[in-house]
Amino acid sequence: MRYVSLFFLLSTQFLFGLPSTEEVFWWWDDGLISYEELEDFLEAISKEDTESFCDLQLAYLNQKCAAQAKEKKYRTQYAEFHWKSDIDSTAHLQNQKFHLKMFYQPFQMDLYSDTSFAITYKRKQNRAVLGDISYSYFKAGLPLQKQKGYFGRYYIHKNSIAAFLGFDQNLSFQVQLAKKESHFYFQSYRNENKHFILFRYQHKVLDAILFYDFFQKSPLVRFRLKQSKQKNTNWAWNADFYILEQAPQEWPLKLPKSIAQSSFWSAQNQDFFLSIFKFSFQEKWRLDVESKEHFTSLQGALTMYFNEAIVEGALQCREVKNKCEKPLIRLKAQKTHFKTFKSILKMRLMAPDWYELKHRPQIILGFSMHPEKGVLFKNEFILPEQNNTKKISWRQTSEYKPNNHFSFLCYFESFISKTFFIEAYRTSLSLSLYW
Prior knowledge:
This protein is about 10% helix and about 55% strand. By secondary structure, the chain is mostly beta strands.
């Protein structure tokens, strides 16, 4: 069952820095991601894992993540309160959560509805944390399970040492060495009487990680490569690779489902630029760890930019080994008028095979208005594919942020019947207060 989501937030536009689940569902409805990829995104949102979500967004959509924006500088004293709840079709509250945050420089306290907490001391780069430890503190490059205990990091110039002591006697020790743009990490873990080590080399272009399990004699290797577009180049590339010998069962990791079930997983994105044109190529390939079956997805897209307009066409082959089963064609046109008004046209066509691409595609007509700073309205009307039983639907996004103390965000989708009866389908509301 899909829930109608109601979010009341304080001090941040998206709870815990992640987008709404409704926005991710719209990516799937528009054919931007597969159902398996949708599950990976929803899992990251449910675990409030911003770092994993942003890694997936870059790998699956070739988009940088807005949730990784730099932290704002706060006053020496402030407090925040976050409350979140889902409402099901019977108007009952589901999955209520709250987050209380209090800051008195240099101390910070975070308290959550699941009884987890964290008390943080931060002075310049040095940090000490007591309570529930997020893996982002470790800078490990792999999504580790949250653990309860004490964590501390101390810097000596650009180098640092870090240690973790768990309430359940789990231990970890890390050394970080830095030279110019290169960083090297060595980390040792003891988790539930099992021993693990992690090596990481991080550079502007390369991020290489080795995680080794001494108990199962099993390694995990991750490579991330990135080449950003420069002034004198017409090419950009990013790639992410995972290599596993066997499925991680008792590791202190929380890998996305599609990666944990693969002995090899890769996602590559390449962009080529020429005048007003951009050609994009995407490849995703994985080898199932149990069945040894391989799954390959390819996509090519051509985008043109001219006169405040964007026109894009994309062709995706969801399953190469089955002679491109379920091919997907997407078209998009967007035009900016008077700097405050945008018109949008999208089309999507998917069929079981190439011989059934003759029916009416999904058509989306929409517009967005930005009448003043901090105010945005966007409406889209969706006519489903001819062979789809889904009704005509209407999406609306409204954002209102008149000042630095208040903001409101709403995602709304409803069905429209032939008699023009409107039936609510999905809703997400966000209310933010800043002080």
